[in-house]
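quick one
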Amino acid sequence: MNELALQLNETIQQEEKSVYEMLSDLGRKIYFPKIGILSQSAEAKAKANKYNATIGTALENGQPMHLKVIQDTLSAYSPKDLYEYAPPAGKPELRSAWRNKMIEENPNLQGKSFSNPIVTNALTHGLSIVADLFADSEDAVIIPDKNWENYELTFGIRRGATIVQYPLYNDNNEFNDAGLKEAILAQKDRGKAIVVLNFPNNPTGYTPGRAEVARIAEAVKAGAEAGIKVVAVTDDAYYGLFFDDSITESMFGQLCHLHPNVLPIKIDGATKEEYVWGFRVGFITYGHTSSALLDALEQKTLGIIRATISSGPHPSQTFVLHALQAPEFAAQKQEKYEIMKGRANKVKKLLDSGAYDDAWDYYPFNSGYFMCLKLKTVGAEELRKHLLNEYGIGTIALGDTDLRIAFSCTEEEQIEDLFQLIYQGVKDVEKVSVS
Ligand SMILES: Cc1ncc(COP(=O)(O)O)c(C=O)c1O
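structure w/ pyridoxal-5'-phosphate:
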């Protein structure tokens, strides 16, 4: 094994043996080259004041060479903030701005020790780094039965891990912490579990309340106390869009310092929070009391980044940084939040009117972009196709009974019409089934 990888492994083992045991085979082997093109270029950037002939970019008139056709449309930004490679860990100012934002928005992080966020090519990339560093083919990845389908590809197909599911809701229509606990404890023989907690949830739009969150943390802790090494990942893609009675913080804070057998990892980013889906700016953050261990995990993360995408896109990091620092940012975000909340409330009001009760129930929702109907009389896929072909309405069918509706992309004044047509669609399909 490479000497640098060995050193990182030694540090991790010394600081928290259980974290070393969580690493995948690749996670143990990976390292970030300290001596090489990147480090020599960084040194030259600081010291080479005459000629810096190190890195594979081009310079002209003391700034990055660029084409006018591109710069003309981006003239608000300086070429140095667009064209140069961003460091593999991301722009340092962006990393600190995101960390500050996290601390401001999550009082439960007070007094907790966690790493500087490392920039990823949005959340999928963050999740895939977790999969690379921690998932081997014999490992279990625990997710609820209502989940974002890409976990299957990221952890299952790509890394060969076994996906273990538990029902998201219990009989009281609350988060099923008992199911989660059972799924974790069932991994005793494996000795390890990767738990993905996604709130607000895709597809249901559910975020638990304070008491439920305490029980989720208890479930994770119970696994840890039983000797299971738990990689506890929070997928905070829809963070901040909390419209009703739920926590308004990430669970990451609750998981930090929970137990030596728990490694909390926060995956978040600008994608959904700042409405910049195509920018591809996300973050991965680790929670632990040892700064040496956090540094070692950062080096391993950079190794994966260097080996896969080398570094993330620079322009979009600049755009997001600019937004975070802009005085108008908070007010503009609040404005969009109110629009999303208005849509969510409108959906709930309509569904609670009783007008559609013979056609569907709905899963509890209070946050995010989506909600899910549970159809009573017709199949989800049949209805989806019918709505698309007869009414030009696009929805997502999940399993036999569930239909996901993105209220995020429907104007408030169109929501009633949308649901009325979906209801009409159900009635049409019912008739066909009877005749
Ligand atoms: C729960 C969840 N996590 C992660 C992502 C991926 O986000 P990104 O587009 O930033 O990769 C999505 C996108 O739909 C999502 O719904």
